[in-house]
Amino acid sequence: MTFIPRLLSALFAAAAAAALHMPSDVVQTPLQAPKDDVKVPVTLAVMSRCPDALLCESVFDHVLRRVGSKVDMSLTFVGRINSSEPDFGVTCMHGPDECAGNVQELCAIKYVPTSQWWEFVQCQNYRGRDKVGLPETALQCAKSAKLDWEGSGVGSCAGLDGSGKAAEGVQLLQESVKTTRSIGVEKSCTIIINGKQVCIHDETWKQCEDGHTPNDFVRQINAEYQKLNGDDGSSEEYD
Questions:
Q1: Over 25-44, what HEC string results?
Q2: What pTM does this model have?
Q3: Torsion of the alpha carbons at 187, 190, 195 and 198, rounded to the nearest 10
Q4: How far is the C-alpha of 9 from the C-alpha of 200, rounded, in Å?
Q5: What residues have CB less than 8 Å from 10, skipping those under 6 apart?
């Protein structure tokens, strides 16, 4: 039963001898971790109660299931700064409840991972656009998305009561509306991939030169990912 220990000893001895005879100009370099990839920024310019926004977000739910790991997803909101508006300082096309929904979603985007805030948005949409922004919808969808409303920071940002009227969230909404206007976007839903406006849904699809199906957006994201990373862009994620 001494064969294996003797064999190991012989192997170690051989390795040591080889090291002694290694040329002095041979440099051993440590293995390096793979370089982090650059994700493709994708932004949907939306209004939380807008039917066009709900449709776009439904389409992108399919897109993210396939290439979500390649995407840095965000929302920016369409509205009008209005200092006389008492709760939000913003006029939202579909009323104050839409402003509240915008705030709730912006706070979720700020404080929790994409998978959670995206599920939160999808839950609100699923309940119907007339329910988006209501405190009870926000709190119920936070539970559905396993989003810790009080502990994550989302609740203090949007209002622990779910109202969407807390100061931090209102400030986020005002900043988002200003950003949307500054990049020349006026329509919900406008789709921006890697800084380029690629498609609009305003009652119907418009200005979508490269298509408007999930497959079309997946193809565009893969192409941009390839430009950013030198990858072949062919890999996809599936459910």
A1: CCCCCCCCCCCCCCCEEEEE
A2: 0.82
A3: -120
A4: 70
A5: none
Residue 20 clears pLDDT 80, i.e. is over it:
no
Q: Are 93 and 47 in contact (CB under 8 A)?
A: yes
**Separation in Å, CA 169 to CA 75, 111, 165, 196, 204:** 14, 11, 7, 27, 31
How many angstroms separate the CA atoms of 115 and 94, rounded? Answer: 27
pLDDT band at 14 (very low <50, low <70, confident <90, very high): very low
Task: Identify how many contiguous H helices and E strands the chain contains and give both numbers.
Answer: 8, 7
Residues 220 and 232 sit within 8 Å (Cβ to Cβ): no
Contact by Cβ (8 Å): 123, 99: no
Crossing angle for the helix pair 167-182 and 96-111, to the nearest 10 degrees: 90
**pLDDT at site 21:** 43
CB–CB of 63/214 below 8 Å?
Answer: yes
User: 62: how many CB neighbours lie within 10 A of its CB?
Assistant: 14
> Cα(120)–Cα(44) distance, rounded to whole angstroms?
16
pLDDT tens digits, one per residue of 101-131: 999 999 999 999 999 999 999 999 999 999 9
* Separation between Cα atoms, residue 174 and residue 176, nearest integer Å: 5
Instruction: Assess contact for 132 and 50: CB atoms under 8 A.
Output: no
Other Cβ atoms less than 10 A from the Cβ of 51: the count is: 14
Task: Quote the CA–CA distance of 105 and 84 in Å, as a whole number.
Answer: 23
- Interatomic CA distance for residues 123 and 104, integer angstroms: 12
